[in-house]
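Notes from the 1:1 (GR / supervisor)

We went over the backlog. Supervisor wanted to see one worked example end to end before approving the batch request, so GR pasted a single chain during the call. The sequence is below; no edits were made to it. Supervisor asked that the structure be written out right there so they could see what the output format looks like.
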Amino acid sequence: MKIFLTGASGMLAAEVIPQLEADGHKVIETDLRPRLDRIIPLDITDLDQVKKEISAVRPDYVFHLAAETNVDLCEQKPDLAFRVNTLGTENIALACQEFDVRLLYISTAGVFGGKKKEPYTEFDIPDPANIYGHSKLQGEHIVKNLLSRYFIIRAGWMVGGWEIDKKFVYKIVQQILEGRKELRVVCDKFGSPTFTKDFAGNLMNVINTNRYGLYHMTNKGTCSRYEVAVKIVEFMGLKSKVKVIAISSDEFPLPAPRADSEMMRNYRLDLLGSNHMPHWEESLKRYIESNIPKGSKAEVHR
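Structure output shown during the call:
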């Protein structure tokens, strides 16, 4: 299968692309800021450019991974958020519509407002807590309105890519490797970690069903940021040397409001008997073990 992929420089693509190639698919990689020479420059906010590139390739599928995922930046620059995440997605969907191409759109747990006590399913009504969530949700609506052959797959707290990861897990690891003996971590925000390697490994299992529609695909289990940090310290073998202190999110104000809960359940996959995602603790341990720098002060607990 020939796959046209946006966001090829990102942390999710870093696992998805090798998996697709290992499965025998041809991947045409694009990104606004190419990280590698083989990646084609593409601005998804330019409809003419999007149509030109997709028309030239005539792919079987577009995998739309590109997005502005900096939640606080989206809050501070809503025009940027909606231009990239909403109108950029509309441009991709319009090109897919014109050239009769199937679309995979990666969305987010950020479409939920966080008031539900149990994990959200695909059948819950979204109510975003911030601009980022709104911009991604509007992208979902556009895909549904313009196309009939599409997958929308929502991921949770993304973990992967190690050195290209700008998110929570890698930040905590870096603080520990830099010698921090005390970590203050929010304990009142809950979610579902989503490891890019596991996501990539299960992605084509979903795509190949041709059961188009909306899916959640996170690792099994839910947790707080604090619980993740505690496990990171444990898996680095530093429980006796690094203290993790639980704090309220009120002590750590950010530009964008965060939902109290972004916990999700892969309900459709459960119902279909296709939920092969491992538990987040298992994947976190493997992630730490495979990436911790050799010769560092931290020794992975095995």
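Supervisor's comment: The radius of gyration is 19 Å.
Batch request approved.
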